Amino acid sequence: MRIASFNINGIKARLPRLLEWLEETRPAVACLQEIKTQDEGFPAAEFEKIGYHAVWHGQKGFNGVAILADGTTPQVVQQGLPGDPTDDHARYLEVDVFDTRIVNIYLPNGNPQPGPKFDYKLAWMERLRARMQEIMAEEVPAVVLGDYNVIPTDRDVWAPAAMADDALMQPESRDAYMRLLADGWIDAIATHQPGGGVWTFWDYQAGAWQRDHGFRIDHALLSPELADRLKACGVDKEYRGREKASDHAPVWIEIKPAD
Q1: What pairing do the DSSP bridges indicate for beta strands 142-147 and 100-106?
Q2: Which residue of 157, 182, 190, 246 sits 20 to 30 Å from the alpha carbon of 211, by its own alpha carbon?
Q3: What's the structural domain count of the chain?
């Protein structure tokens, strides 16, 4: 079973590329971030035409997450990250599908830092950790995947000095991410490719794609129950180079059937 994550950077603007990717790679589950549409504008019918059923949590103009499943409708467990009733950002969607708990996140960017946006990012990460601890306690096969907006180590960026002042790789951001791993969650890409050098994002500016000046901010963290079944993982890098592409490439994991 393939479970994938794709920050699509505007579902309406990228719909042809998204449908192309779905039909060519056919993940069982696809988690989308930055759909940038209100709920009523989500193009569910387009996915149904190719066999996918969707649930989504939208927001006008920015943010927004969705989960597509091949041939079945995911059952929503949690929409919106618990812990702050004043937070109305559409950044979190948790479902059960194919006997797996799947959590799709679009973690706050945090720039500029320091400042209120960075404070919000760190507070959001604390709330995320609390929810992930609850999921871990359920001892279910689970994966939390999406755009974390964190570059975990210097091995995950083309030039650490170029991003040194960015919220994505501040010590506080990295420490919050490492606390998730310390709780027992397994970073699939880092585990399978420990040498680093794997990018999931290339900016539209300064020829970043053409020069391969990228970094890794899209992650899949697996619970121990699911990590034992991890067969393979990777990045669909070629899709970043297509016409009118997102600035992210899809990340995926391949899971073996349960015994």
Answers
A1: parallel
A2: 190
A3: 1
